[in-house]
């Protein structure tokens, strides 16, 4: 976990250092790097070969005549939007950026992977029964998973009992040395792969100079991440799934009747931006309904909308009726770390479920300490007790005590450690749990007790090595025992899963927090299970992951917003199957306004620190898919809203026209102002980035009735002390279904009231007695 102060210092140091470094030498204009050339909405025609030929001609026009042999495209985009990726020098990239048809040019950067019981837990939390609802789900919804590929042999992709593939499907099942067309079926209906750099030996500028996949490529997952996310979103029901005996139960996706199409744009090292953009383009062209992307940029170096490949692809997907769901990132709990925060993306935070993996430490004095980890050690209460030592007591020669206490690499004396259980602390955030485990294990330790409050909510998987993590209070008890006796001993027992754990859900410590890049939009949007999620995986090639005497598990337990994202994508597909005519923003709205804000103790949701969770932690709250089927009211956000947002954000009218493909588009009258975004976008939450006493802020929203006719909704406000919130009108009357009503919410600092500076949170809730439509708000009081 990153210390906030240290984090800020590192960021400032980097920003100061980069200009100094960049000015220390002349730029090299001959070095070629991969760039993405984005050209906005398709210009027409639709013939892929003609589009590629036009892209090659444009590329050829800026490459020197004596280097025409290297004119080639890595990718050509022509379904949802237009553009291409190619190897360019800085000078060539600058020349293309000035072309009349080009909107933006940016480097093809690397994106990061955001690395059972969860669906049952969500159903219990909703308080509803799903029997009748399950019959409403159809098998016609198609989910696109942009990730590391798929392991098609997993039983999670069994198509038993499924109907024929929908006739509207236009995708393919790409073959490779280890992947055949027969690997696709009625469940896994499509598979593509990307990520190949252009060949420098291309001989001419014809359309044949598009780089083709290498012979070694295929859609097969070699990482496990993509298989895990795909099965979480839409895996078939598999009885008696488990991870070496833990978390046993039925593994299933959120939309088990939906179809899956995978787009392998990533590997273990990350994802190419140009490949991710191509995957989104192909997924829209293939005919998917929902796209799940558990990938993102660094929260430290976020880009504007026109150089963020996921934001660009998602905007055009929305234009064509495809909902894009993305993970919010794992850089929490620091604020301003959420990524994938464009308003047209459904951004997901991660939470825990009501299951804990307990690793018990039995001390030699009879005391028992409950820790957390996933280990399959051979320690036993009836067997041998092991000497227990603090890291500082077994420090290597000349090693600082502080380093040995933290299990720093090279800090432990192997002769003193061998055969013992070592206790280490985590006062140095630069040494991860995995490193400490490797240091202790490499020094011959029989186990490791880690004292660390950070990430204690996320069990660390350690295979056959005995490890347990405890908080500082329990750690103090263990250290006190070590100091109280001459020969302290202990054993670390195998992990047991504990059900009906309380409180749950809790916002995961790693889950990225808002505000987002655009503070006028509240991000993240929604929270879903992302801690210790059991789902399908690939056969492990790492012997460390397989306990002694066990066969490889077909399922794995993983944590991250990567795991939360496909939960929401699966829920979105579930809602789409019941309401095929709903737009992406209607589905998002239904999921957000019906989210729950209480845990299984009936108390307000909390962060991992125990503090009350805010909208910047959890968005609208923990999703409740069953409730989302009948939201009562929805907030339908149009493409026009998003284009107006780009104007308010400062983009020129001509740029927005190219992006939208609407030649007659005009920006709203008046000067651009980010403060106007809160009203410009009909969003199911509200964020006011600046509020001063005596200068009220007013935000407008339009609600659509998707429930019964002749409905009347009354507003209630939950506001923090000192913040005056008024809703006008405070009653909305709908004579028919599909009719709309507009209202305004005004915010001001109450006269002579003491109100906290910074962001404060609350909600406006509309109710007709049967439906509860909650829209959270965040207001930054200056």
Automatic annotation (TrEMBL):
- Please tell me one Gene Ontology term that the record gives under cellular component: extracellular region
Peptidase S8/S53 domain spans which residues?
140-600
Q: Where is this region: Disordered?
A: 201-229
Task: From the UniProt annotation, give the residues forming the signal peptide.
Answer: 1-23
A single GO BP: proteolysis
Q: What's an example of a GO molecular-function annotation for this chain?
A: serine-type endopeptidase activity
Q: Which InterPro entries match?
A: Peptidase_S8/S53_dom, Peptidase_S8/S53_dom_sf, Peptidase_S8_Ser-AS, Peptidase_S8_subtilisin-rel, Peptidases_S8_3, S8pro/Inhibitor_I9, S8pro/Inhibitor_I9_sf, SBT
Keyword list, A-Z: Hydrolase, Protease, Serine protease, Signal
Per UniProt, residues of the Inhibitor I9 domain are: 34-114
User: Pfam families in the record, alphabetically?
Assistant: fn3_6 (PF17766), Inhibitor_I9 (PF05922), Peptidase_S8 (PF00082)
Residue ranges with Low complexity bias? 201-215
Location of the Subtilisin-like protease fibronectin type-III domain: 681-779
Record keyword Signal present: yes
Active site annotation, chain numbering: 147 (charge relay system), 225 (charge relay system), 562 (charge relay system)
Task: Determine the domain of life of the protein's source.
Answer: Eukaryota
Q: Which family does it belong to?
A: Belongs to the peptidase S8 family.
**Mind telling me what this protein is named?**
CO(2)-response secreted protease
Q: Which organism is it from?
A: Zea mays (Maize)
